[in-house]
Amino acid sequence: MKIIDKSRVQRDDSIESLKKEISILMIISHKNIVKLIEVLASRTKIYLVLEFMKGGELWDIIKDKGKINEDEMRNIFRQILLAIEYCKSKNIAHRDLKPENILIDEFGTIKVSDFGLSSLYEDSTQIQNLLHTTCGTINYLAPEVIQNMGYDGHRADIWSLGIILYFCVAGRLPFEDDNVSKLLEKIVSSNYDMPKSFSKNLQDMIKLILNNNPKKRVTLEQIKNHSWFREITAFELMTFLTGSFINRIFDVQFQKRINNLIQLKFIIFIQIDNIILNAGLK
């Protein structure tokens, strides 16, 4: 439950932001987005009754484990992308994607939350898509947002996805500096170090996402077709072999790839603990 103090909302002049968040949550319905169940109010408080997320935040996992291996992160990243892809289909840009806003339910399903800074476009034309407000958490902001020029909220969300991906696998942010001005310079110029521990496919994916030119930045569809994104994970292998197709994305093409692996006898059962963890089995 999200409890909001009415006086604070009025004092901070954030009534419109709250109305926007409630409106967006009421019109969206997706398995990878936290569901709004009910809105209640008293004389002093507003209560947003949200779907209970027993697993906590993605941030909590990084805090406890330090980082996430690529195989686990691939499954997490795919679910986040599905949520953002759905939002785009509804002309919604999240604009504040970060690990703290990525939640996990009791079954291990990833869900995006906190639409307080989101934008709901009236239509999908380019002119309507250009935003001019700077919002979000600074380390996850896209260069075009920092430069305070008209920007496409969907492309800015893709940049934030790249920051989340980098952060979770590396255990640190790509852009860091105690001096805010220098931090902003690094982001605008896309000046970061690529961890050698990243696979070649992941390195390529990060480079494509963290392109400081939004027009040249990779699209959601291109991400879905990228080699790193399409690699088969231990989780998918387990769901295929057990007949459970929940969270499987690639349908017929995915099944053909699995069948080919089985025929070639290339399947090796490793990391059983990770398989059990990812599959949400107890």
UniProtKB/TrEMBL annotation:
Residues 1-229 form the Protein kinase domain. The keyword Kinase applies. It catalyses: L-threonyl-[protein] + ATP = O-phospho-L-threonyl-[protein] + ADP + H(+); L-seryl-[protein] + ATP = O-phospho-L-seryl-[protein] + ADP + H(+). It is an enzyme of class 2 (transferase). One of its GO terms (molecular function) is ATP binding. Signal peptide: none annotated. This is non-specific serine/threonine protein kinase. It comes from Ichthyophthirius multifiliis.
